[in-house]
Every structure is written in structure tokens, then in C-alpha cells.
Amino acid sequence: MNQPPDEHLYSIPAPYRRMENMHILFWLLKDIGWCMVWKPLGIAMIFPTLAIALVITWRTRDIKAELAHNLAIVFWISANSYWMVSEFLGFDTIHVWGAVTGKHLALFPFLTGLLILLYYYLVQRPREVRPAQVATM
């Protein structure tokens, strides 16, 4: 049976999908390097992991939901990478201000990603859903 196309269907072109899959591979290699304390591997994988996340974010910038989530991922990878480097270079336990250590500074990009998602879900998404509900009534 032929069904009308779903206007809410989100499809990913094959080259983009391959890039996302490569992104997952690099991210896993980065975290394996971190877990196993293989410093060269962990540090080397920061650049391709972050670079592909930025390309994916740029390519999906016209879809607000994708932009918000992909920006959150960019900040997550940044925080995660900073935390890894802080452990590798031994400044994760150094107190920078009161009880705040070097590793705690990773909270800034983590919280930035969280704030982007909170803005999307509390402000942007309700604006997107409201006109669609009014139009169907």
C-alpha cells in the first residue's frame, strides 16, 4: 500500500550517516584511550572527534532540534576531552579555587550544553509545537 509521505520524517543522506558512524568510532577510540590511559591515542582522537561533531552541527544548523542537540554534543565532547587531558597531565586534582579542582572546570562546557538543551526544550520547542497545534485545529 502506498502511504503519503510523513512530513515529520527525518532522513539522513548516506554521506552524512557515514560521517556520523565515523564520529562514533573516533569517540570510542578517544574514550578507550582515556580508560586504558593510552595518552597518545586519547589525545590524538580529540581532534577528529570534535571536528566531525562540528561538521555535523554545521550541516544540521537549519533544523533547530538537531542544532541544539548537536551543539550539546560538541560541548559534551569538549568537556569530556578537557577532563581526559586534565587527568593525563595531572592537573585534575590541583585546587584552582577553594574545593574546585582542575577536573571540575569541565563543568563549564557540560553546563553550557545542558543550558542549550534547556533553552531548546523550555523555549524553542514550545514555539515550534504551538503553531502546528493551532494549524490542525
TrEMBL record:
It comes from the Bacteria. The chain crosses the membrane at residues 36-55, 67-85, 105-123. Keywords: Membrane, Transmembrane, Transmembrane helix. This is Uncharacterized protein.
